[in-house]
Amino acid sequence: MAYHGRNLGLNGNVTTVMQGPKKTCDDELAKTRPFRRKAALRAEAEEMVSQPQTQLSTRRPQVEPAHYQLPATQPEPWERLAATPLRLSLPRDGRMPLVNLFRTDPVARAFDVMRTRVLQALKAKGWTRIAIAAPTAGCGATFTSVNLALSMARVPASRTVLLDLNMRDPGVASALELPARADMRRLLKGETSYLDHLTRCSDTLAVGLGAGPVRDASELLHSGTASDMLDQIQQDLRPDVVLCDLPPVLGFDDLVALVPRIDGVLLVADGTRTTSEQIRRCEQVLGADVPLLGVVLNRGRGNGAENYVV
Ligand SMILES: Nc1ncnc2c1ncn2[C@@H]1O[C@H](COP(=O)(O)OP(=O)(O)OP(=O)(O)O)[C@@H](O)[C@H]1O
Ligand SMILES: [Mg+2]
């Protein structure tokens, strides 16, 4: 009886029944005690059920297993970018030729040689951000940006980020046959995260696409929010190279606005129409504030590999 009572005593109030007289109780009391104990238990159970949860939890504190309390581990930002593999179709009329589709083409070889030279130059200087622009429209700035990015992305364990900063006439999305996820303006204004904007095409290539023309493009590129966004992409994604496709140098001041935020410029000349005077004017526009990494001769004669200077 005492043993039985001690078990019940764990429930709190019932201990008072336990602590009553044991050996001195008379038969009458001994007969009534079991009923009193049951009644007390029932009352106790009813009382517990009717109490709010907060009170219940103070009676019997719940201890969470230690592993529930550990902070959740997040994949790194590169892994968190939306993944959309490239599904490139063979070029039709007007579709941009891409080196991934023509690996044996001399142009593909030319881009690989350019890639290696650019990567070596960047590594030697500790640089990452390159702007790619042409003197005038249609010379091949986007053609060069996209194909250079694809060539760089074939370097194992590297990371290339290609940003379409030609907000006058964005062309990277259609060249890569990808849907633009958001407006580049919103990204550069800090209204959307790069995590929601950039698309990861492979383990080695991520792209930031433009959905359409933006009126205040150069003001945006001047802004602190654009600068912060570029820094954040650099810091979080840790790319080896950030390539920025830009509008024509002689038509807009966008490249000049971006100059403080980049390490070097690749100028794309069209062998069929760009003049040496245009190249000279581009050099003047850039001034001494940013190094001209090289002049790429697009649509030049020859097998392609020798048609650039870096
Ligand atoms: N070497 C090339 N071989 C074949 N087609 C090319 C070559 N270079 C450019 N093109 C084509 O020429 C057109 C214009 O090229 P691209 O879009 O790269 O020019 P851009 O300098 O970016 O022009 P914009 O300033 O308007 O953005 C595109 O259709 C592109 O596919
Ligand atoms: Mg372009």
Automatic annotation (TrEMBL):
<dbReference type="InterPro" id="IPR050445">
    <property type="entry name" value="Bact_polysacc_biosynth/exp"/>
</dbReference>
<protein>
    <submittedName>
        <fullName>Chromosome partitioning ATPase, Mrp family, contains Fe-S cluster</fullName>
    </submittedName>
</protein>
<dbReference type="InterPro" id="IPR005702">
    <property type="entry name" value="Wzc-like_C"/>
</dbReference>
<keyword id="KW-0547">Nucleotide-binding</keyword>
<dbReference type="InterPro" id="IPR027417">
    <property type="entry name" value="P-loop_NTPase"/>
</dbReference>
<keyword id="KW-0067">ATP-binding</keyword>
